[in-house]
Amino acid sequence: MDQIQLQKLDTTVLKWLDQVHHLVEQRVRQRMQVDTKSSHRDLVTNVDREVEQYYVQHIRNFDPEAQILGEEGLGDAVKSMKGRIWFVDPIDGTMNFVKQQSEFATMVAVYEDGEPVMAWIMDVQQHDIIHGGPEYGVFHNGEKLELSADIGLDEGLVILSGARLLYEEPGFPQLAKAAMGYRVYGSAGISYLHVLTGKAVAYLSRMRPWDFAAGITLAKSLGLRVGTIDEQPMNMLVSGSVLVATDKAYADIMALLQKKG
Amino acid sequence: MDQIQLQKLDTTVLKWLDQVHHLVEQRVRQRMQVDTKSSHRDLVTNVDREVEQYYVQHIRNFDPEAQILGEEGLGDAVKSMKGRIWFVDPIDGTMNFVKQQSEFATMVAVYEDGEPVMAWIMDVQQHDIIHGGPEYGVFHNGEKLELSADIGLDEGLVILSGARLLYEEPGFPQLAKAAMGYRVYGSAGISYLHVLTGKAVAYLSRMRPWDFAAGITLAKSLGLRVGTIDEQPMNMLVSGSVLVATDKAYADIMALLQKKG
């Protein structure tokens, strides 16, 4: 896509995000319907479904040829990365959404023939958005975002998946101990916003495609390092252990993980 | 103190908090001087000291008879809980302050002959304040705060000290597993704000007096449960393992801790 097309794409999705912000704010004041999916900790609400439905409708209108891969399954059964694919996570951090009404995100990413084009992450309650792509640059609420200082693990905060740490995913406790400090936020989107703005030096979790598509697009576009930690190549259609970090923290983490293996 | 005195106390400290908010905002834009205390993870900045100095000066003017127990040691060497004592934590979550410029708090509490009188916790960057006392009620930015629903551990989020969990303080991993989810925020004040507003059902950490004085005052005043988990009586002048929780989560946690012992 050329700059005019990217600009139009950005403007369009930013308008959707404003609508999603207002929709979610309204729904928070009403009674929410909370259901469980794979376990009693895997929550879904009517709002997750309604927001995904909103995205799917608007994407179909705007980009009818594209396929949509969404968390709640209202899009398509995407089998390959050919053509244009929209990754949609309507409410990321649903437990925070239900319990806290804050610290949750909404995420959208566009890929074309396997390559990232643009992505958006919004802290919904704060209405705080990072958006951009490799050919477009990265912006924080419309202002150019610059890459923060390249800080190593022992000088920075690392954000970890709470479950992966608690059940001692290989390397996770060691990483937490080697870092200056660690945090557990319960939302991939909120965690990515921390790394993108230089508040944390790394974020690691095992995630599904809609959890990491936007985060890795924005991280790469900004100049952060992106990789997997389970020695699997990055596959945009399956779950993986995804790491986003500063150059130095990336090297620190990889060295630690190799030592333990 | 009567209601007029409590009201005056509240108004006075709320004015100080506004000043502290502005002072910290200014300092964040300038170059910060970061030093370490007991370890390379125990940070202190010129802002911690400057804010404590601000409190000490204003408390001396407002309440010259009182003693002051502050984190940075600019107050008094308090030996007993007799008379009026001000607990001051100028910047709680200094690592977040340094690394994130957000998710840190400032906390003040007033005790009289060992009994809590009033307390204030401010999320400094968000300028979000919970304030009140047992004879005054609890307020969230001036609006009466009501006790949230009494939710148990398996239906709510628990907030834990990251270090205590990582180094497997007895019971902590079990609590994290029993809860619906756990979070690690790196600031006692920010954690207390979550429990006070019903976003989390419990917060546990080993803390020093200025870390918990305001939190337990506001929690008790609101009707939450407060206790220690190391079988020591609560002592306002020494460190302790302090728990603040809903009634149900308190019972759940105590049952879990007894089972493991």
From TrEMBL, chains A, B:
The cofactor required is: Mg(2+)
- So where does Mg(2+) get bound? 71, 89, 91-92, 211
Q: Which GO terms describe its molecular function?
A: inositol monophosphate 1-phosphatase activity; metal ion binding
Q: Which InterPro entries match?
A: Inositol_monoP_metal-BS, Inositol_monophosphatase-like
Listed under GO biological process in this entry are: inositol metabolic process; signal transduction
Keywords, A to Z, come to:
Hydrolase, Magnesium, Metal-binding
Which residues, by range, are in coiled-coil regions? none
Pfam families hit by this protein = Inositol_P (PF00459)
Name of the protein in its database record: Inositol monophosphatase family protein
Its organism's taxonomic lineage begins at: Bacteria, Bacillati, Bacillota, Bacilli, Lactobacillales
